[in-house]
Amino acid sequence: MTSKNASAASEPATSLTDKEREAIAQMPYEEARDKLIQAVQALEAGGLNLDQSMRQWEIGEALAKRAQSLLNEVKAKLDAAQAEQANSADTAGTQSNLD
């Protein structure tokens, strides 16, 4: 195995272009979710050849990762807000919260 093949083996093959990956990385949650639904429906409908099926699968994986990343960000913000609220609840209504 040459070094060129070794580096190719360590990186997953993908049919997505850099532009497509960048577009997915910038999508809002709702758009990523809707496009993921479309990719799943295309796969479920059948009639795609192997290359088309693999491409839909790759698109779906990228969209799912984007949507999950956005959900994780929202969850982290909610967790932080809840923790802040819990911390301030200890001093709510007391003179110390005016300090």
Which characteristics define this entry?
disordered N terminus; Exodeoxyribonuclease 7 small subunit; 99 residues; mainly alpha; 4 helices
Structural account:
The longest helix is centred in the last third of the chain and has 40 residues, at 50-89. Residues 1-11 have low confidence and may be disordered. The protein has one domain (16-87). The chain is elongated and about 70 Å long. The protein has 99 residues and is an all-alpha fold. The protein contains four helices and no strands.
Structural class: mainly alpha
Question: What letter string, H or E per element, gives the SSE order?
Answer: HHHH
Number of strands: 0
- Biggest β-sheet strands, sense, barrel: none
Strand content: under 5%
How many structural units, i.e. domains? 1
The helix tally amounts to: 4
The poorly predicted ranges are 1-11
Cα separation of the termini: 68 Å
Helix content: over 70%
**Over the alpha carbons, how many angstroms does the gyration radius reach?**
22 Å
Task: Look at the structure and give the mean pLDDT.
Answer: 85
Shape, per Cα inertia axes: elongated
Organism: Bifidobacterium bifidum
Enzyme class: hydrolase
Subcellular location: Cytoplasm
Region (Disordered): 1-25
Short structural summary:
By secondary structure, the protein is mainly alpha-helical. Helix content is 75%, strand content 0%. It has one domain.
Topology, pairings included?
Blueprint: H1 3-10, H2 18-26, H3 29-45, H4 50-89
Helix pairs in contact: 3-4
Subcellular location: Cytoplasm
EC number: 3.1.11.6
Protein name: Exodeoxyribonuclease 7 small subunit
